[in-house]
Amino acid sequence: MIAFEIVMVALGSIRTNWLRSILTTLGVVIGISAVIAMVSLGEGAQRSVADQIDRMGTNVLTIRANQRHFGGVATGDTEDLTVDDAEALRDASRGLLTIVPQISSRVQLAYLRWNSSNQVVGTWPEYFSIYNHELVLGRFFTPGENQGRRRVAVLGHEIPESLGTALELLVGATIQIRGQPFKVIGVLAEKGDSRGFNPDNQVFIPIATAQYRLFGGRRRLSSILAQVTDIRQMDQAFADIDRGLRREHKIAPGSDVDFTVRNSAELLETANEATATFTLLLAGIAAISLLVGGIGIMNIMLVSVTERTREIGIRKALGATRNAIMFQFLVEATVLCGMGGVLGVAAGIGGSRAMTRIANWETAVSGDAILVALAFSIAIGLFFGIWPARRAARLDPIDALRYE
Questions:
Q1: In sequence order, what are the beta bridge partners of 138?
Q2: Whether this model's pTM surpasses 0.70
Q3: Which range, 247-256, 296-305, 360-369, 370-379, is most confident?
Q4: How far apart are CA 160 and CA 177, in angstroms?
Q5: How far apart are CA 182 and CA 171, in angstroms?
Q6: What is the DSSP secondary structure assignment for residue 231, as one 8-state letter?
């Protein structure tokens, strides 16, 4: 009952000086809202990266050529990966891997009076199954069309809009790719943009057509994709790729290879580590304002102790113990910070949604972040309220009653 009365007295004191109480909590509100907003931005970035790599598939390996070195310094050129390498890996994998070479470049598209600059990807038909592409209309190109170097194209979902034509009218029509006529045979279902990887804005053609008709006999591949049928066979896949490319490139066992094999799961782990570090940095910077807010709480509580010195003396004269006085001021500091925490969480959630709507940044408000922020705000109130509370509790009642 006594504790309840102390709490009510503390709340009454806050209500009496409501304007000062609101201004006092502003530092905590700003600090908590900044922390929530920054953490939600980091969480959103992690989810975005995870979604992007999930689209690629965690069972997909990406093989790229290493950079060439001259005098110990890396040049801008890379070693060669060719279709022959891809075919050798496909034959050597014994059905364990789905191998897909790809070559890409940004070129100009044209249809009637419309023009668009887009990424053209030359690949095998298996590319669409690796990335789980579906068609809105039309069909995929076939191995026979690749062998025959046919000028056929499958468009990403956004390409018809870029060319100012409805997709129903574009399928079966002939567009110009780098000045050469290509027949549109299909349009892919929408996949969505994920940090620069946007298949909706790409054009897909047979790789033989790309190499010998579009890119002037260019043999060097951008990369080779290898999909494992079972994630548990990933180690075996690494070994098969290493053995197959060493044989093709005539690299002795134990010597340095001229290619790199990356797993999408490793990319996800690396990206998450980088994003987590970035999130902690942002949250740490935002937490500085929490420290400033806590100092403001302590400053106001010290002012409050000075203003209420005579009141404290009367309470002690009537029998209030040191613990009761200290508890009262701790409650005031904690309630102030708790109020600031609640308002800060609301402001942080609002700020996160504003970033999503205005700047189109992906954010995700975590329940754990909200609980930690509220707990931290209360801890700030307790920490910075102890000194003023102890000062109030240790006042001599006689000196306090004489205070004017």
A1: 186
A2: no
A3: 247-256
A4: 14
A5: 11
A6: G
